[in-house]
Amino acid sequence: MKTIKIMNYILPVVLLVLAATPIAAQEMNNSLLAYSRMGVGARVIAMGEAGSTVTNDIVSGYWNPAGLTRMKDFELGTMVNLDMGYNRSHNYASFGNRFRFGALALSWVNANVLDIDGYDENENPTGTFSDSENNFTLSYANSIGDFSFGFGPKFYLSTLEGESIYGYGVDFGAKYDINQYLEIGAMARDLYGEFDGATMPYQISAGLAAYPLKGLTLAADAKMEKDEDPYFCFGAEYWTSIGRDPEADSKLSVVSVSEQSSWEETLSTLQTGLRLGYNRGRLSAGTGIKLRNFQLDYVFRYNNHEVFGNDHILSLILRF
């Protein structure tokens, strides 16, 4: 009976994605705004970008808005790519809060290229210019029992040499907790959208996360993009407690962030995490430290999407 009830929620979402995909595929430029699909958050990137199910914090606004229902009240998240070379940068910031009517989050993803050499039609230098790419997403999420759902309308802004171009998109996501050891999720990125007269390239992800032991998370995603073969992403994470009271990103977690504690008690929740990921022949590895209200993560990603080479990323989450 429980399975039948859950299918009543999941089936409409699946049918919506399948029905809308052919429409979104028309006149599509798959390289359009590629920065928006490079991923955010060192934790999930270290896990091979298998993020459709494992996210349960403010970063869910990017990977699967349904995960925002797991935020610990108010959260603030940031990310910076430390060295992309050639005056390039990739940044992210977000904040969100849970309310009685659901969870809301606002996020910003940015990519810049500075000091680009300009030339005229005769190949004479004309000085330098810069390119700034931005997208802003307002995400909403709610849950019905063990089923969570969310969506996020997006606004795109591209500025090149003083001229601006605008666009829009929308993401949809859903998650279902099968039990404390297993959950599944699905995400449709830019299912509807347009930028400068071109249809936004969609990305559809579906995955599962397993929590076989306290502190251990295993994740796998299947992803599909226009004009590309489907591919798989895999990730693993293990949190080990240095203090006496663990709060790992496992369903077996035992600490509530709402508990008030002294500084000594806060330090007792200190954890370190290790992560590995695999994504289309590329490896990633990362680590992190976490207190009840603070999480700092790092990842080394090899051959970033076969375009940007190796990169080093730091991200921070604050919980209040």
User: How many structurally independent domains?
Assistant: 1
Number of helices: 4
**Strands of the largest sheet, in order across it?**
1-2-3-4-5-6-7-9-10-11-12-13-14-15
Helical coverage, percent range? 10-25%
The CATH architecture can be given as Beta Barrel
Structure class: mainly beta
**How many DSSP-defined strands?**
15
CATH class: Mainly Beta
Rg over alpha carbons: 20 Å
CATH topology: Porin
Query: Quick one: CATH superfamily?
Result: Outer membrane protein transport protein (OMPP1/FadL/TodX)
Features:
single chain, 320 residues, mainly beta, Porin, 14-stranded antiparallel beta barrel, 4 helices, 12% helix, globular, disordered N terminus
Question: Could you characterize the architecture of this molecule?
Answer:
With 320 residues, the protein is mainly beta. It has one domain (2-319): Porin (Beta Barrel). It is built from 4 helices and 15 strands. It has a 14-stranded antiparallel barrel. The longest helix has 23 residues, at 2-24. The two termini are 39 Å apart.
Give a quick rundown of the structure.
The protein is mainly beta and 320 residues long.
SSE blueprint:
Layout lengths: L1 H23 L17 H5 L13 H4 L11 E7 L6 E12 L2 E18 L5 E20 L2 E14 L2 E17 L2 E14 L2 E2 L3 E8 L5 E10 L5 E11 L21 H5 L3 E9 L2 E9 L3 E8 L9 E9 L1
